[in-house]
Every structure is written in structure tokens, then in C-alpha cells.
Amino acid sequence: MKAEARIKSPALATLFLVVFIDMAGFGIVIPFLPFWAEHFGAGPDVVTLLMASYSLMQFLLAPAWGWASDRWGRKPVLVVSVLGSVLSFVWLGFASTLWMVFGARILAGAMGANIAVAQAYVADLTPGEDRARGMGLLGAAFGMGFIMGPAIGGVLAGPDAANPDFQTPFLVGAGVSGLSLLLCLTVLREPPRHRFESGAAMALGTRLGTLKAALTHPSVATPVIILGLIALVMGGLEATFALWAERQLTWGPRETGFFLAYIGVCMALIQGGAVGPLVRRLGEERVSVIGVFAFALGMGLIPLAEMLATVLLSGFLIAGGIGLGQPALNGLISRNAPAELQGSVMGANQSAQSLARIFGPAFAGVLFAQLGRQSPYVVGAAIGFVALLLALRLRRPAPEV
Fold first, then answer.
1. Rounded to whole angstroms, what are the CA distances from 197 to 60, 62, 347, 370?
2. What's the count of helices (H) and strands (E) in the chain, helices before strands?
3. Cβ contact 173:89 at 8 Å
4. Which fold, 1-189?
5. Confidence (pTM)
6. Which residue in 29, 35, 17 sits closest to 250, CA to CA?
């Protein structure tokens, strides 16, 4: 048993590095995509469809990656998917038409659907009582990678907002993912297989079915809907913010990258330091209300922002709202779900947020193109306050007698 524990720890550490490095490579290109698409003549509605295409492919192909890893092994599937990510970054860097940009992002989304494989890998390496900590480690790798990536991308963009360096960040993203591929090939080992099915690995029809079933439980449905509304608005923000900042503040990819990294740092600090003490003191319901209110207020401030201080304040409120609200709402969902439906309900929650992140960018893009650059945030704030009204109705379940 002790020997097995010594094997598991290095394996998890390696998987953490693989996911962190791969996510950093993904984050590097995020500040550039809207500008790169505009370079080929895309309008705001097309730019946001480009962002949505990545999430759509992730949602559709996660079950296929999970099935493939059960059939052929975790490591081979991770190697193939990370190799695909490298190729997508290279394709993006050398794209000469808009369809090539779309093709590269569709490929990246298909390869990025390997989250189900990473979750299954963690489940194979951890006993049941340690699995939550292992999944938390995986989430930390994603979060840290997304903080580092946009910051690196901002530096690589150069100081000239009017003429940023597009190709270098994409090729550096390919190189960073290439390092992740090297770790997969040389260090990562195939884990001993256990039967495990995460929400992301379930078949598409099953995921939609569990989502419908979860919504029949009112104490579960309300926080699931709130998280879905937040994901809808946040997906629109991520897809349109670079376009808004370019027009409102004359920002380029560098400033956008730094701002995204700032939001990530604020969120990490709040989740790491404030959530636990606040939940113990106030309970998940009140912390959820505080978080959703801060998120809606932050969205509402964006149209009023004409100077850096206001933009930073809105970013802090948005990050704080998600940092407080998301863990508290997830805790409520887990606590209120029937014991025999825990896995299905959490999978349904994940599916709801995935669907919202597909439709959010497309919806925000239409608003941006048809009603002006402030409209996605005005509508987003309104949706946020609808979510707040729902959060005010959250109640603890009645104790069983």
C-alpha cells in the first residue's frame, strides 16, 4: 500500500503539470482571437460564433473521449488530444483566411474535450475518500493555467495595440502544448483502470436526461439555473470583452490579456481565502446571494467604464461574484441532491453550464452587432439580477424526520 501511494503522488503531480501547461497554452491565445478574426473581416457576431464553436465541440466530443479512454487507455488518448492541440495552434498561427481560423478553433475544441479523460485518470489514481481532493487538484491546474496564459499572451503581444504581434503568441502556445505532449510521452504512465463514469463522460442523451431529472427537484433546480444564467452571461463577456475594450478604451490584445489574468488572480484569491470562512459564518444561501449580487453589479458597471479604475472595479466584482457564488451554489446542489443521484445531478449541473457557454457567446455577439457594444453588458446585468431574485429564494432543505 505504501509503495502504491508513492506511485500515485508523482503520477498526479505529472498530470497536474500536463493540464496546467496545456491550459496555459490555451490561455495564451485567448486575448488574440477576436482581433485575429477581425483581421480577416469578421464582425462581432461572427467573432462570437468563433468563440462558441470551441465550447460546442467540447460539449459534443467529451463523451467520445471518455469512451475512447476506457477502450484504449488514458495515456494514448491524452497524447492524441494534446498533439491535436499543438496542431491547432500551429494552424491558427499560419491561418490566411477566416475559415482556417474557424477550422483551427474547431480542432482545438475537439481536442480540448479531453477533460473527461483527465477526470477519469484522477479517479483511477485516487481512492473514493481522496477523489474530491484529486478533482480539486485538477481544477487548480486549470485555474492556474488560465491565469498564467493570458498574462504571457499579453506580454507577447507587444506594446503597440494597433499592430500587435499575432503569430508569436500562437506559436508559443503550440510550443507550450508541445511541452505538455513531451511530458505525456515520457513521464505520464497508464494508470490501473477502475470503472468510473463522470458527468462529462456520459452519453449526450444521458446528460440531457439527467439535466431534465435534476430540474424536477426544486432545491436542486434553482442553484443549477442560477449557475446556468451566470455561465450564459460570462460566456458572452469572454467572447465580446476584447471587442468592447478595443472600441471603448482603445485596448489591444496586451491589455486584454492582462485584464483576464487580473480577473483570474482575484477569483483564485477569493476562492482560496474567503469562501470557506464566509460559508461557515453565513451559510451557502447567503454567500450565494452576495456572490450573485456582486456579479450582476460588476456586469452593470462595464457600460459606465471610461477609465481604468472603473474597469478594474467591475472586473473585481465579477471575479468576486463568481469566486463566492460558484462554490456556494455547487455546495448547495451537492447538499440538496438525493444521495442516490449525486453523480447524475453534478453531471447535469456541468451539462447546463456547458450549454450556456455555447449559447452565451452567440447571443452576446448578436446583441453587440445589432444594438451596440454596451448591450451585451446591460442585458447581462439584467440576467444577473434575475439570477439574484432566484438566489433570494434559496432555502435549506427541511430536515428529515
1. 16, 12, 10, 43
2. 16, 0
3. yes
4. Growth Hormone; Chain: A; (1.20.1250)
5. 0.78
6. 35
